[in-house]
């Protein structure tokens, strides 16, 4: 019998590790710009009025949306790094947001903040997509949620095993925070130190669950993974990042474009939820009558190139 030493367990081997790490290193400038923006924002957050706070929230939501644009699966492993400062492109990218339910997210969370009792919690869950640059944009958003007191806890869900190319695992999550913390840029390392602190204090919690890598659509969760469904029911808001989550939320069916999102979720309603996605697969619901057909006529690949994005909300209004 050969000794285990020569055969390390394959289950933790991540064939995508190098390309994920490269994506992070190549995006350094963009990451520094975001960390600097966040740290300056946090320093003045006390002085912001409602509208300013809302504007900043919307900005960071959009950064998290466009962070989803450049994943490794779309680029066939070519460099998908983010080398421009996304903050400067937000205005130019606005016309490409096909569905924009950001207002619902603001009214939900600002309402939670106003009505929250001293000891009670507001929990936002983020079901993660890609590691590397996109994960940084998600962590920046999560930091802002705590700093602005729109949330008191952020819970993250990643994949238990290396999954679609650049999907986040616990290893990627911890590795990235470590890298950010050891950066020689003052604001970047400050972010990393803060993030580590949030984890220590239990304000950020990372969860693993095998369900996310099983073939089921999400409406099967109450039957297949009742424990996970019960956990999600504790959220005040769940953010689902990326294309694959959208496909699983809608059962990857050939829906008509104008079918309501609520209907396409097929009974999956653990808590108010919002999908933050750039379109990379041939599925989209909840559009205005004729909107999808019109796009298709003028731009046949509109729904697969990552050019368009959505914030699509389902929950009480």
TrEMBL record:
Similarity comment text for this entry: Belongs to the damage-control phosphatase family. Sugar phosphate phosphatase III subfamily.
Underlying gene: ARMT1
Q: Which InterPro entries match?
A: ARMT-1-like_metal-bd_sf, ARMT1, ARMT1-like_metal-bd
Which GO molecular function annotation, any one, does this entry have?
fructose 6-phosphate aldolase activity
The reactions it catalyses are:
L-glutamyl-[protein] + S-adenosyl-L-methionine = [protein]-L-glutamate 5-O-methyl ester + S-adenosyl-L-homocysteine; beta-D-fructose 6-phosphate = dihydroxyacetone + D-glyceraldehyde 3-phosphate; beta-D-fructose 1-phosphate + H2O = D-fructose + phosphate
Function, in words: Metal-dependent phosphatase that shows phosphatase activity against several substrates, including fructose-1-phosphate and fructose-6-phosphate. Its preference for fructose-1-phosphate, a strong glycating agent that causes DNA damage rather than a canonical yeast metabolite, suggests a damage-control function in hexose phosphate metabolism. Has also been shown to have O-methyltransferase activity that methylates glutamate residues of target proteins to form gamma-glutamyl methyl ester residues. Possibly methylates PCNA, suggesting it is involved in the DNA damage response.
Q: What is its EC number?
A: 2.1.1.-, 3.1.3.-
Alphabetical UniProt keywords: Hydrolase, Manganese, Metal-binding, Methyltransferase, Nickel, S-adenosyl-L-methionine, Transferase
The protein in question is named Sugar phosphate phosphatase
Q: Which GO terms describe its biological process?
A: methylation
Cofactor(s) of this protein: Mn(2+); Ni(2+)
**What's in the domain note?**
Subfamily III proteins have a conserved RTxK motif about 40-50 residues from the C-terminus; the threonine may be replaced by serine or cysteine.
Superkingdom of origin: Eukaryota
Q: Where is the Damage-control phosphatase ARMT1-like metal-binding domain?
A: 12-295
* Gene3D superfamilies in UniProt: Uncharacterised protein PF01937, DUF89, domain 3
């Amino acid at each position: 019998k050969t000794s285990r030493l020569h055969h390390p367990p394959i289950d933790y081997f991540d064939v995508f590790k190098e390309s994920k790490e490269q994506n992070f290193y190549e995006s350094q400038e963009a990451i520094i710009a975001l960390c600097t923006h966040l740290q300056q924002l946090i320093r003045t957050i006390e002085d912001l009025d409602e509208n300013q706070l809302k504007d900043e929230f919307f900005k960071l939501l959009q950064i998290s949306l466009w962070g989803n644009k450049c994943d490794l699966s779309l680029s066939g492993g070519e460099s998908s790094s983010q080398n421009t400062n996304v903050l400067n492109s937000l205005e130019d990218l606005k016309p490409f947001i096909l569905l924009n339910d950001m207002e619902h997210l603001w009214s939900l969370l600002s309402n939670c903040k106003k009505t929250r009792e001293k000891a009670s919690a507001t929990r936002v869950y983020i079901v993660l997509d890609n590691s590397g640059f996109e994960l940084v944009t998600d962590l920046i958003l999560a930091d802002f949620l705590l700093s602005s007191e729109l949330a008191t806890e952020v819970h993250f869900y990643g994949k238990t095993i290396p999954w679609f190319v650049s999907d986040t695992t616990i290893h990627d999550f911890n590795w990235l925070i470590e890298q950010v913390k050891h950066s020689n840029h003052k604001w970047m390392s400050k972010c990393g130190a803060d993030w580590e602190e949030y984890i220590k204090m239990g304000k950020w919690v990372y969860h693993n669950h095998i369900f996310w890598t099983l073939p089921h659509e999400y409406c099967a969760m109450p039957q297949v993974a009742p424990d996970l469904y019960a956990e999600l029911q504790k959220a005040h808001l769940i953010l689902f990042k990326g294309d694959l989550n959208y496909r699983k939320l809608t059962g990857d069916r050939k829906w008509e474009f104008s079918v309501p999102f609520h209907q396409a979720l097929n009974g999956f309603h653990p808590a108010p939820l919002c999908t933050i996605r750039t379109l990379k697969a041939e599925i989209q619901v909840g559009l205005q009558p004729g909107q999808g057909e019109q796009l298709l006529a003028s731009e046949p690949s509109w729904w697969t190139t990552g050019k368009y994005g959505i914030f699509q909300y389902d929950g009480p209004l």
